[in-house]
Amino acid sequence: MHILTFKRVTDGRGDLYAAEGGRDVPFDIKRVYYITNAPEGVRRGFHAHRTLRQVMICLRGSVKLRLFDGRAHEELTLDSPDTGVYVGPGIWREMVEFEKHSVLLVLASEHYDEADYIRDLEEFKEFVKQN
Ligand code: T46
């Protein structure tokens, strides 16, 4: 995991942020998705990826991100459109405590592929041992 900071261009018309694949983001972006309308108390994620690389940006509101690499746990709150979190393969992620009206944007290195997911924690721990 590492934190990325995006440049903000502010003028009298508002704030503009840019994130370019291969420049601000450490991969070519093949897919963008976003999560909105998360009900209070909902928990998302609870999986890892075998190869996928992603950057998560909370455009509005806030969300707590819990990460586990098989050894150590990390927790951070995403709450600013100028901050992205790079999450590489082999990291278990959980998104909790979505503030009402939050918008979580995710930039991904690959197209959607369910076979890339590890959705069982024990299987994930085994994956970490093998890799
Ligand atoms: C991740 C975290 C941060 C698609 O059809 N296309 C897509 O691009 C995605 C991401 C999901 N889906 C389908 C698959 C499921 O039927 O949407 C449904 C919900 O997906 P999921 O339960 O995996 O959603 P989250 O919020 O738990 O996880 C998502 C991403 O799937 C995952 O890669 O790292 O956000």
Structural class: mainly beta
**How many β-strand stretches?**
12
Largest sheet: 5 strands, antiparallel
| Mean pLDDT metric | 97
Strand content: over 45%
Low-confidence stretches are none
User: Looking at the structure, what is the overall shape?
Assistant: globular
End-to-end separation: 17 Å
- Reading the helices and strands in chain order gives EEEEEEEEEEEEH
Count of helical segments? Answer: 1
What is the helix content? under 10%
- Rg over alpha carbons: 15 Å
Order of strands in the sheet with the most strands?
Answer: 1-9-6-11-4
The molecules bound to the chains, other than polymers, are: dTDP-4-keto-6-deoxyglucose
Keywords:
5-stranded antiparallel β-sheet; 1 helix; globular; 131 residues; mainly beta; binds dTDP-4-keto-6-deoxyglucose
